[in-house]
Specification:
It contains 2 helices and no strands. With 60 residues, the chain is mainly α. It is elongated.
């Protein structure tokens, strides 16, 4: 699924907040990653974040 830039930002932001509050990482954390936002971006790129985007149809 292709995400809009807004959906991507929301997903990464939500995951970074979870990580900042102590959620366990879903991937092995590379040594160069120090910030939750960087880790959330890496998890997003690898496709392991369990967040689903539901789009409603605009047709009536």
């Amino acid at each position: 699924m292709e995400y809009t830039r807004f959906e991507k930002a929301r997903i990464i932001g939500a995951r970074a907040l979870q990580l900042a509050y102590g959620a366990p990482p879903l991937i092995k954390v590379p040594e160069e990653i120090k910030e939750p936002l960087e880790l959330a971006e890496k998890e997003f790129d690898e496709g392991v974040i369990p967040i689903v985007v539901v789009r409603e149809s605009l047709k009536e």
